[in-house]
User: What shape does this take?
Amino acid sequence: MNLKSLLRTASLLLLIGTASASAQQITLGHLEDLSGPTADVGVPYGQAVADTFAWVNKNGGIDGKQLNVDSNDYGYKVPQAVALYKKWSAPDNKVAGIMGWGTADTEALTGFVAQDKIPDVSGSYAAALTDPEGTSGKAKPAPYNFFYGPTYSDALRAELTWAAEDWKAKGKTGKPKFVHMGANHPYPNAPKAAGEALAAELGFDVLPAIVFALTPGDYSAQCLSLKSSGANYTYLGNTAASNISVMKACKTAGVDVQFLSNVWGMDENAAKAAGDAADGVIFPLRTAVGWGGNAPGMKTVMEISKMSDPSGKVYRPVHYIAAICSAMYMKEALDWAAKNGGATGENVAKGFYQKANWVPAGMEGVCNPSTWTDKDHRGLMKVDLYRAKVTGATDGDLNDLMAKGTIKLEKVKTVELPRKPDWLGW
Amino acid sequence: MATPSLIPAGDFRTSYAADTTIFPTRTSRNFAMAGIIALCFAPQIFNAYWLSIAIQIGIFSIAALGLNILVGFTGQISIGQSAFFLLGAFTSAYLNNNFPIPVFFAIPLAGVVTALVGLIFGVPAARLKGLYLVIATLAAQYILLDFFSRAEWFSGGSVPASANPFSIFGYTLRGDRQYFYVVLAYVVISFILVTNLLRTRDGRALIAIRDHYLSAEIMGINLTKYRTLSFGLAAFFAGIAGALYAHYQLVISQEGFGIERSILFLAMIIIGGTGSVMGTLMGTAFVVLVPEAMESLSNSLKGSAFDHALSLNNNITFLREITIGLIIIGFLMFEPDGLAHRWRQIKTYWKLYPFSH
Assistant: This one.
């Protein structure tokens, strides 16, 4: 037997080996940020995705097949995400779907996932991912990108709508001033153009944007420029950890401004860490209720939480519950695909278009009804705006603080945004 | 003490041609050629993971080679190499996306553009020594990085830039298996070019500047010219490596190419041996493989007794970073001449066996 035939048999055996392994399992790629700049929200989100799929496996898997979730901490670095994607899109071992994370890497991979036909349910809600055919002219075609939740742009639009009413309700005259604050990075920059355009339309005086990094730090300089500019409403584009730094610094500097945060910018843990600096911050919630809320679906959420916390004592932030919804949508799309031609990426993507006003089974009252169509990947146009209320010292267990009401997330307004075609993609 | 410039007694050449060969012996030349031919079969044998590691080693070794010209052969120091790497990447993508230049030509052109920018930064740096030179190259690093994050016309600003795949005469190379050959070709050509450089007049001038710049200047070597040339060459190879990287990843992002990557390039040549071309390849392979080895080690340690004892949980990824730093310090303490020296020692041991001392 010469070298060539030896090599050929070896590679054939390897191929057979991998093929047979995949026949019994459905593989999903999972990107999470556990050590990078967005780790503060990446850790609960990643945990929830892993827990949800572990729970799915415990309850029969997808059409009898177990899910093999390949979780990887890529530290929010795009090159690492691209390298992992290469592994997941290898022609002989393609994954059925990816649970993605960051804006920069998801946007970078839109072309690749479309070419390789692998649906990507991301933790990024950038509007540039919502145009499947590129009809808006403002975004690249992204037919295989989905996410559960309002886009960053739509959430900011909803917050600005509320801010305009709030200005009038307070009886103030003149033009309110709006400032966009965030890092110079695709994730905070995603809603900047849309936000500033709508603000100008609604009669705000749009001031130049202020930059602060994704990592926590000393942002007193930014707060002082905020104070001197006289801004009334400020959008915080970063995740909770660095937003807390800004809120604390601005409280110390005595800046009187209404903070409007993005979905990742505030949660119960952040409110505990920031203390009374977080009081009054407006932020959108992707789910209809928080942990322990009154909804039939909360039972499923608690069951899923037990997969990594058998005692049931850990308080799960809003991001955990939103991640369960994202993972459950992927699960139901996989279910549909498995019954309609096999769990390949193409079928899973079709699975997302099957239901309008879709709430995954067992998540009633938790996940908001979402609709994806092949022309419009904006799943959710309804934005629930909440205000973080902190009424005392926040040292102590989070469960106690929430139970006593020291930290409260009170609902302010639900904004139903019109599904405007000229708002698509930016 | 058998260094390339000090040949021990008994080892002599009888013609100028024999003295200036690229490979010291016929055997080493044959081994090198056999190695390259063996690597041609690598895409068939390696799986996707090892192939991507091999391509990474190839690309970074070209950039490390450029840095070795500057640090190892001219005695300068630069902690701005990753900025030039990125510049090469963005330039190649920019040239290919905005002008009708095919990728095949965009890569060397990007190297040339990066060399010119390197020359611009080299002119002030060539007059500085020691710590001041380090700070000047640090400035180059941050100036270029800031430029990339703001120049939306060039690099897309904070959004990652996209590059086209490598195509030759209309045939587009897809996948690691095919790209491996492009990288292999560039590695072979770069290494031959640099080894050749060292036997030319300019190469000897660079070595003279490293060994004793005052004597070199007295002998008539123009220090400023050669130091600037050295910067330009380092930037050229960094640019080529960056361009190869751009057309490999197809997405160019600045993350992971800040000051920490520059220091990793320095680590690659220190671990491999600062004055050695072969050492560059060994050092690069070592630096690329150590994180992977640590990754698999930390994955196997996850959830085990060690993990619980130190209660690391998610922070096990930092164990990897710590180990890489410790290895670099260890090398500096115990093996300052690098892997190339250790390899020569091993060869000598077996050559003189059992009479080595």
User: Anything to note?
Assistant: The mean pLDDT of chain B is 87. The radius of gyration of chain B is 21 Å.
